[in-house]
Amino acid sequence: MKKTELTTCAARLLATGLLCAAASLPAQAASWLLASADPAVVPGEAFQVVVIAPPDSEALPPRLAARIAPPGGGEGIAIELAAAEAEPVDPRQRLYFGRWPQELVGTAMLSLSEAPSARLLLDASAVATAAPAAAGGAPLAAVDGRVDSGVDRMAPVSPAISGTVPAAPNALGFHEPMYFVYGGSHPRSARFQFSFRYRIFDDIGVVAERFPLARGLYFGYTQTSVWDLGSDSKPFRDTSFRPSLFYQFRLSDPGSGGWATLAAGYEHESNGKDGPDTRSIDTLFLQTELRHYLDERGTYVGLIPKAWAYLGKRDNPDITRYRGYAQLGLRVGRDDALMATALLRRGTDGNSGTEIDLSYPLRRSIFSGVGAFVHFQYFRGYGETLRDYNVSVDPQYRIGLSFVR
């Protein structure tokens, strides 16, 4: 049996034992307890946990503060747990949803901030070995009747909508890579980008409760700048602003050794200028992200094709000759090691642009997707900036740091 399977099996046995222990606790026991039917969680996705409070405590609140301690110790990562239902049958036994941090990979300990003695060991393997419990099926502790200890059976929880991204308490997150690199030529320049996305509807809000599909609606924003550091006044050569509104949902089960997501929506891109330098486009886009894991260490191959239709391009009517109607993104590597990515575009006249990025973490850490990485970037062809979409540049080599990749 493989090491990952052994770890998961052991964690399952531990979780099962905790659930059994919860059922056999005497009514007067004055301790908190965390339990889960499935100890395998997927980084960046939702997970379920049962919280059982002492009989003499107050009713459990809709939200609980919790902390995840990494394997090597340290302060850990603070998260928030959101109740799966508004009114539980037993106010001292409640099912909560949480979102496991994307950057935390490996075995870690979950505990409650207000009751540190309540702990639960969970396994966030880079390659998911089981689908999140929220993906469907029977709710946790859904046993017919009452248990002998007098603890009420947990009330049924509505399963998540099949195919949607699991809802999570964390609304603000990263969207595209964030980096700062320097180099280029004629003259020297810096290129940097920051990006975020915001999930519009909260899990337990009125809209999400009545229309569960609304949980997959996001607002995204990405800003990319080329800064001319070789000139005396050091002006910004161009800046691209890209707000978007899109819906994202999952197409496949992470337990299959990979996953796929689909996003569709509207995106505006402009450089915020007027006169002859103004550039702007409006598009409807469809993007798929496919990821397949190659080994237990988390090495994977990813494909990110994106296609779009133009709603408006008055400021640059010939942009399709240089940007076309689609692009292809490629990713190969590990989240905690070397990562290589490529972005390929080709216009209707055969004009193309190619960007290749290589990054490596500056220190070994469980914080894999977010942190500090040495970053090398190569670009050649058309479309380095929106203003010069119809100008081809010689190979540009830059090096620097990335913070999200």
UniProtKB/TrEMBL annotation:
Keywords: Calcium, Cell outer membrane, Hydrolase, Lipid degradation, Lipid metabolism, Membrane, Metal-binding, Signal, Transmembrane, Transmembrane beta strand. It is an enzyme of class 3 (hydrolase). InterPro entries: PLipase_A1 (IPR003187), PLipase_A1_sf (IPR036541). It comes from the Bacteria. It is found in: Cell outer membrane. Residues 1-29 form the signal peptide. GO terms for cellular component: cell outer membrane. GO terms for molecular function: metal ion binding; phospholipase A1 activity; phospholipase A2 activity. Its cofactor is Ca(2+). Its EC number is 3.1.1.32, 3.1.1.4. Belongs to the phospholipase A1 family. Homodimer; dimerization is reversible, and the dimeric form is the active one. This is Phospholipase A1. It comes from Thauera phenolivorans.
